[in-house]
Every structure is written in C-alpha cells, then in structure tokens.
Write a structure and sequence with these properties.
heterodimer; A: alpha/beta; Amidase signature (AS) enzymes; three-stranded mixed beta sheet; 15 helices; 11 strands; 12% strand; B: alpha+beta; nine-stranded mixed beta sheet; 16 strands; 39% helix
Chain lengths: 485, 488
C-alpha cells in the first residue's frame, strides 16, 4: 500500500482510473507519509480533513476523464488557497486566510485534484535554500544536513520524500529548477505568461512564473497541462489555446539542434558538474540530436541584473504588507508611521528586508538611471542573446546549478555566495523563456545533480520531449533512503 | 475684440508683479467601474462597500485596465485638441499611506496617454490660448477619516482605484479670473464629452495650483509653490491671491521664495507650508510590471474622433453665425451642454435673438434663484419659446411677459392659455389707446402745459399713466407714437 506513493503521478493516475486504488486510500497513504515526515518540516499547513472529504466525494462520484482524477496535491504556500491559510513563508501573513483561490490552483482542482496541504518556502520566495522561511528551514530528504534548495524547498522536499505525488512551485530566478536539481526531481519554469499569476503572492512580477515539480517528465507534462492557460485577470497572461503536453509527448529527438553555451562553464565549478554536462551532451547526441556551440555573451551580467530588477519590483510589491488591512500588525506604535515601522520590522525576516532595501535603493531618484534603467537595458541584451541563438537551434543544454545541495547553514551568512547558486537559472527568467531541470546523475557524495534544458518562448513541448528522451536513456534513479520516519 | 485691457498685477513697493499660474486638474473619469477593477464608482455608497480585492490590494491581486476609462481619456484628449499617444505606460508611484492600499499609486509618468494640447479662453481683453502639457490616467486613493474617533483614523476605500485624469496645463494662466475661466472651460468640455461630471462638491474635479510671481516684463519664471488639492474655484482664486502676495512680500523684503508644497487653509484664508523640496517624497517611479504598455490602434482613435459631439468652441461659432448672437451671448449659451440644447430648442420655435436675451435674463435669474440646473427647469423649452414668440409678435408686452413668466412657474401652463385666461393680450388698437390717452391728457391739463413749456421729462409720466390705466397692456411703442403726436 505505502508503495503506491513511490510511484509516479502518471502511474498513480492509471491505478485510480483502473480502480486499483481509491482516491481515499491514496489520500490516506500520503497523510500517513506526511505525518511520519515532520522532521523534514516541508509543510506549513495540512488540510487532511478537507482532503479526505474531497477524496470521498470523488470516490462516490468519480470522473476518470479528468487529467488529475482524485489526486491529492500539496502546493507551495505562495499560492492563495480559499479558506486555507496562506503565509508565503512570512510572519507578516501568519494569520492570513484568503477568500479566493489562485487561478493556477483552481485549474488543478478543476482537473480533479484537491489540496493536501501548503508547503514551506523561503519568505516571499526570496532564498535558495528554504532557510529564510519564518516557519523554519526545510530538510532535503537526500540527507539530513542538506538544504532542499529554494525557494520552493518545501515542494522539492515533499515531492522527493513521497509526501505528494506531484507539486507546484514558483520560479522567479530558479526557485523551481534549483530545488528540483537538489532533490533529483523534475522542475519546469514555463514561458512567462503561460501560467496565470493571479492569486500568487507576488515577489517580482516581471519574473514570477508558476510551474510543475514532478518525479518524471511525463508527470511534468500532465501537471503543466493542468495548471496553465489564459487568464483575463492577469494582464501579462498569454492568450493562446491550451496544449496537450502529455498526449503529445514524444521521445524522438532526431535532428534537433542543441545549443551548448560556452559562458555556462564557470570558474570553480565542481568537476562532477562539468562531467555531468558532458554526459548529457553525449546522451542527446547518441539519440540523434546535433550539438552546436553557441555564445550567450551577456550571461555574466544576468545575476547582477537580476539582483537589481527583482528587488526593485519586490520593494514595491511588498509595500502592501503594512498592517492596515490584513496580516500581522504590531501592537506597538503610537502613530501611523511607527505602526508601519514596527509591523514591517517584526513581520519581515532579514533576507526580505535586505531585498526591500536594495530595491528601494536602486529605484531612488539619482540612482534609478544607473541601476534600474541600466539593468532593464542589459535585460534586453540578455534576451537578445537568446533570440539570436534560437534562430539556429531548438534548445539549449546547461547544468541546472553550479553544485549539488549544500549544507544547512553553509551559506546563510554569505548572501552573495547564496545568490551565486542561481547563476545558471536567472538568465531564463530575465528572458521570459521556458526551462526544465531534469535529474541527470549524482556527485561524489551521491547527491543528485540536474541538467537544464532551455527552450524558445512557448516551446515547452519541445523541451519536454527532449527531457523525455533523455530520461529514458539517462538511467538516473533517485535513491533516497527514508531516514526521517 | 474688446477695449478692456488685461490688468492683474500684484503691486509691490518696488514695482508690479505678474502672477504665473499652472494647474494640475484631477478629473474623475465618468465610468461604471474603476480603472483596474470591476468595482462600482457610484458616489455616496456606505464606506467600504465598493471595494474589490484588487482595490484593497490583497496578496496576488492584479490590475486589469478598464477599456472604457482609456476611451474616456482619449475623448478628453481629443476635446483638448491634444496629441493622443499610441504608446503609453503605467508606472508605479510608491509611497506609504493608510488610504493607499497597494503602497503605490498606478499612474503614468514618462509616457502619458495624451500629450500637448490647448484650451481657448474668451476673456474681456481677448482670446487667450492656454497650453495643455499632458493628460494622464491614474488611480485615486481612498479616504482617511480622522474625525470619527478621538484616537483612531478610519479608512474608506470606495474611492480607491477610481480612474482620474490628471490634466496638466502649461504655466500660461495669469490671473484668478483666467483660472476661473480655464476650470469652467475644462469642465464644460468634459461635460460635453461626458467624460467627467465636473462635480466639485463630490470631488470629481480638484486641482493642484502652481503659483509663482515675476516682475512685469521679466522673461524668467520665479520659483513656484504648489498648493495641493484645492476643491473649488473660489478657493483656488483665494489661494492664488494670498500666495502671490506672500511671494511678492518675500521678494520685496529681499528674501527667497522656497520651492515647496503648500496647503490652503480655507478657514484662515492662507497657504501653509506642507513640505519643502528637501522633504519631497521620492516616489521611485518605475513601469508597473503587472501591466503591459498601453497600445492604442490609430483606428480606435480615429473612430473616437469621429464620434465626438460638437464642442463648445465650435458650437459658439455656429451660434454666432446661425443665430446672429454676439460673442458674449454665444459664450454664455454654450457654457453648458444642457443650456445650449435648451437654447437651440427655443431658438427653433421663436425669435433667436430675443430668445437669447430672455433666457439669459429672466430664465437664468429664476434658475439661479431656485438653485436649479437648466435640465430641471420648471418651464419647458417649448413653453418658453411660445412666450418669446408672443413678445416678438407684439401680442404681449415685455412687462406682461414677466407676469406670465411668474404664472407659468406656478401653474406650469403654457403662455397662450395664461394670456387668454387673464386677458393679458397687449392693447395695440390705436383707437382704443387714443381714447385712454385723451382721458389722461384731459385730467392733467396742468402737466400738459408744463410739458409744452419745456418740462419734457413729464413724457414719462404720461406713458406711466397710460400703462396704469390699461392695466399694463398698452403697447408701449404705440403709446409713444400717439403721445408724441398729441403733445406736439
């Protein structure tokens, strides 16, 4: 019975459809796993009773034509869920219960799934290790001393530990792909505008994008299909027909041109990462793809650009948390200004404050041109690098991260070293492109490592296909021992 | 055009000072829902009853532009003879306040929807062209209520997110009178266009007033002060007068005018410093990443242009040409769309010139008296036209017309009926009149003699007596003629 939770989402769906397992039993199996995995601290809120009710409802009146029939899902606590507390990993929202459901989660529920619980994350999705959460750090099931990545660290941890059959995260600079890479799972950041941002607690509006985190590429296709789609409530949502990613999944990649950017070979990168990249190239080549050396010359400016644009938007997006209408309000403060100051001082953690300060600074008069405006111009150049390259190639292969999961506490006092972890993931967000992180191997310590496939805008199907072919031929198996229960 | 000369200067001891004024008018867009949410914009609802999750800035909420507000801004821009920008951008203006839920106002900073335009003012000393710098769309804030509780401030977000057009003039205005004319003209244009109701009591139209002074003949502008959020023309004029005098006094005493934001205290009739340039907010403007740049198809602009109604300037020209009115009459009668419509209805059915005179006289006086808009006039245009026509044909005298007007007000009857019922027809039969006049002359032989010996002023006495004896019905023109003949 418990073995069911080890299986992929696709396999589970098959079992439900063929009535080998009921939605209720499936849900109970996950609840059991979650209850025995408290050490991982992956959940901020669980909604077991509600989930069991929904499972029962499904079993009473099953609809097997849905994409996610009777499937319980835990989601990152950045998605607003109706009548269920939504914290964004922050003290300032520790009592916030939305009266509305985010479009992306609503899409999932409309496809037959239901909420199992809310997953821990870095505060307001600002972090690469899930150590900035007000609700404590999350532990990587790969090892009790390891971070699960961030900011979707609760999501990656829960997925790898079989606490949810699949999940969703948000990716502003790598927050889906990096934790996927750290836990040996699949994570996709879709094209900007493919998934609605409505109802997702905003970090940096021009970069934020929700996406699936799954055990397999096939699962990833199913989840993406379920969660994406045009939403008139989000002005940046792309108005296009929904695609059937899972049905159209193909493992024939013969003749596809894969770009290998020379700028992604950085100093001090562990040898294993380089070797893994070589292994990836070889697999794709053996499958009939053509490798093409390309150059993305502005790559080195991506990280500094990101750390201007994202904090700038964040400083403005987070201004609404002022204690006036909802969320935490300090009991101290004699007047309005003092109330603001105390509320925000007590409500936000250090990393969030750091980014609000950076963002406020780069937008200030006298600095705007030198920082924000310049960053926006560089952003255009980074995007142009990709546009130029994609004229001659189908996708780009790079490592997902410069290292495997690091130790808890290792980088907490060194923000720049922490930020450097996003070096391969941020250019994609700046360019608004889709990118997939897929497990590809392990390092010397046996910690998973991922490779990243970057596609043209709205070319999710193609990178999924490449990933699908790669997965079949890579031979990676996530060997996580259940040390936590 | 007119013999009057512009003469508004502040007189100091060391010379005359010219006052330079620029206005930033905030006009509430007439639309059913707010600029970025579906909430209603109706005035007067209970506090916080017209507030969506977007207006109150809940986590994850996103703005979606209301197309109707965009169209209204374009219409207004066209009405101001302004350039419409096919590409404009919404920016965030960041600052903290309890009635600003997002912590920023969505506005347009570098790329407004409407660029340069102009407004013409008919002043007694000629036509003045006032430049429009720009018009942009922005969200209104909510309202902080400080006087409901001794220790707390209450916030009403009904207004939060309502669309405003900020119309920025060039520093082309030179006197409180010009400000008055400018605001009235803007208001009139927007009311013709149905883009803003111009209701200053309800706050649909407010202005920030920029004032500076310079010695007469100087080319360089003086340092300006901005007086924030003045909500009536009268207060604007008072604030300008106070502020200009204050600045002149500073200059004359060898002091400098500091660039600052000031507040007008309507009770003390003075402006007070709110914050200096050094304390000025740093609004950290940047393009709102939740909204794409606003792209307007030329066809949409052209279509809106084609569908614009006739605006006051055009209508004025037409009234002068078509109805033979003078500039003053035409200006008054086109000042409000409803007035012009009423006039045209009356003019169609009666004498055009006489209709103008009577409308601007008795009708306006009555409406003013009762505090009514012309749309609520108790006398319909049709009845009013009948009255004018009766005067024109000589059926009734002007004096009797005034009595009939009063009766029309009371009964709502048409003038014909009133004339018949009360026998108010003018006495225009020369024989009848001669009879009356003979009687008067016979009774007042002494006065006739005095008249003939040179006391010509007595002519008025005879006219008066005739009117009296005829119950005011005597045709004054005929009375004059007969009397002149008889007294020769």
């Amino acid at each position: 019975m418990t073995e069911i939770t080890r299986q992929s989402l696709n396999e589970i769906i098959e079992k439900v459809k063929t009535k080998k397992i009921s939605s209720t039993d499936l849900t109970k199996a996950y609840i059991k796993n979650i209850e025995s995995a408290k050490k991982l601290n992956a959940f901020v809120t669980t909604t077991f009773d509600q989930a069991l009710d929904k499972a029962q409802q499904f079993d009473n009146k099953p609809n097997f034509d849905q994409l996610l029939p009777g499937i319980p899902l835990a989601v990152k606590d950045l998605f607003c869920t109706e009548n269920t507390k939504t914290t964004a990993g922050s003290n300032i929202l520790n009592n916030f219960i939305p009266s509305y459901e985010s479009t992306v989660t609503k899409n999932l529920w409309n496809n037959g799934s239901f909420l199992l619980g809310k997953l821990n994350c870095d505060e307001f999705a600002m972090g690469s290790s899930n150590e900035t959460s007000h609700y404590g750090n999350v532990i990587n099931p790969v090892g009790d001393h390891l971070v699960p990545g961030g900011s979707s660290g609760g999501s990656s941890s829960a997925l790898a530990a079989d606490l949810t059959p699949a999940t969703i995260g948000t990716d502003t600079g790598g927050s889906i792909r990096q934790p996927a890479s750290f836990t040996g799972t699949v994570g996709l950041k879709p094209t900007y505008g493919l998934c609605s941002r409505w109802g997702i607690v905003a970090f940096a509006s021009s970069l934020d994008q929700a996406g699936p985190m799954t055990k397999t590429i096939q699962d990833c296709a199913i989840m993406l299909e379920s969660m994406s789609g045009f939403d008139e409530k989000d002005s940046t949502s792309i108005n296009k027909k929904n695609e059937q990613y899972s049905k159209n999944l193909k493992d024939n990649i013969k003749g596809l041109k894969i770009g290998i950017p020379k700028e992604y070979r950085v100093d001090n990168m562990p040898k294993e990462v380089d070797e893994l990249w070589e292994k990836g190239k070889k697999i794709l080549k053996d499958l009939g793809a053509q490798l093409i050396d390309i150059s993305l010359p502005h790559t080195k400016y991506a990280l500094p650009t990101y750390y201007i644009v994202a904090p700038a938007e964040a400083s403005s997006n987070l201004a609404r948390y002022d204690g006036v209408r909802y969320g935490y309000r300090s009991k101290q403060g004699k007047d309005l200004i003092e109330m603001y100051e105390k509320t925000r001082s007590e409500g936000f953690g250090d990393e969030v404050k750091r980014r609000i300060l950076i963002g406020t600074y780069v937008l200030s008069s006298g600095y705007y041109d030198a920082y924000y405006l310049k960053a926006q111009k560089v952003r255009q150049l980074i995007k142009k690098d990709f546009d130029d390259s994609f004229k001659k190639i189908d996708a780009i292969l790079t490592p997902s991260t410069p290292s495997s999961a690091f130790k808890i506490g290792e980088k907490t006092n060194d923000p720049v070293s922490m930020y450097l972890n996003d070096i391969f993931t941020v250019p994609v967000n700046l360019a608004g492109l889709p990118a997939l992180s897929m497990p590809a191997g392990v390092d010397k310590q046996g910690h998973p490592l991922g490779l990243q496939l970057i596609g043209k805008a709205l070319d999710e199907q193609k990178i999924l296909n490449i990933g699908y072919a790669f997965e079949k031929n890579c031979g990676f198996k996530n060997e996580i021992k259940k040390w936590w229960s | 055009m007119s013999s009057e000369k512009f003469d508004y200067f502040i007189k100091g001891e060391k010379g005359k000072y010219e006052v330079v004024i620029g206005l930033e008018v905030h006009a509430q867009v007439l639309s059913k829902s707010k600029l970025f949410s579906g909430s209603s914009t109706k005035f007067g609802a209970d506090p916080n009853n017209q507030v969506s999750l977007i207006d109150s800035a809940f986590p994850g909420m996103l703005p979606v532009i209301n197309e109707e507000c965009v169209k209204q801004a374009v219409r207004t821009g066209l009405g101001l003879n302004a350039k419409i920008n096919n590409h404009s951008v919404f920016d965030r203006k960041n600052y903290f306040y309890a009635d600003l839920p997002q912590g920023y106002q969505i506005s347009q900073y570098k790329n407004p929807i409407v660029g340069e335009g102009k407004v013409l003012l008919d002043m007694p000393y000629g036509v003045r062209e006032i430049g429009i710098e720009r018009l942009h769309l922005e969200q209104d804030a909510g309202k902080s209520i400080h006087d409901m509780d001794p220790t707390s401030t209450y916030v009403d977000l009904n207004r939060s997110g309502i669309a405003l057009m900020e119309i920025v003039s060039k520093p082309d205005l030179r006197s409180p009178d010009e400000v008055n004319a400018y605001i009235k003209k803007l208001r009139s244009i927007m009311r013709y266009l149905d883009t803003c109701d111009g209701n200053m009591q309800e706050g649909s139209l407010r202005a920030d007033v920029n004032v500076s002074v310079r010695k007469e003949g100087d080319k360089k502008f003086g340092t300006r002060c901005e007086i924030k959020n003045v909500n009536s023309i009268k207060f604007m004029q008072m604030a300008i007068e106070y502020e200009a005098s204050r600045q002149v006094e500073l200059i004359e005493n060898g002091k400098k005018v500091d660039q600052e934001t000031r507040l007008f205290d309507t009770k003390k009739n003075e402006t007070r410093s709110m914050r200096s340039k050094e304390d000025a907010h740093d609004y950290r403007y940047f393009p709102d990443p939740d909204l794409l740049p606003l792209k307007l198809e030329q066809k949409l602009i052209d279509d809106l242009k084609k569908s614009l109604p006739e605006l006051p300037d055009k209508k004025k020209e037409r009234f002068i040409k078509e109805y033979g009115l003078n500039t003053y009459e035409a200006n008054v009668l086109v000042s409000e769309k409803e007035i012009s419509e009423y006039y045209e209805e009356v003019a169609k059915l009666s004498d055009k010139k006489l209709a103008a005179t009577w409308m601007m006289g008795d009708l306006f006086a009555m409406l003013n008296d009762k505090g009514l808009d012309i749309s609520k006039s108790p006398i319909s245009a049709k009845h009013f036209a009948e009255l004018v026509e009766s005067i024109k044909t000589g059926e009734i005298s002007g004096r009797i017309a005034k009595d009939i007007f009063e009766i029309m007000l009371e009964t709502g009857d048409n003038p014909k009926k009133i004339i018949d019922l009360n026998g108010m027809k003018q006495l225009s039969d020369p024989k009848e009149l001669e009879k009356i006049i003979n009687e008067i002359l016979n009774k007042n032989k002494d006065k006739v003699d005095q008249y003939k010996s040179g006391k010509v002023k007595l002519f008025g006495f005879f006219v008066g007596q005739t009117m009296k004896l005829s119950d005011g019905k005597a045709n004054p023109k005929l009375v004059n003629e007969i009397l002149t003949k008889k007294l020769k």
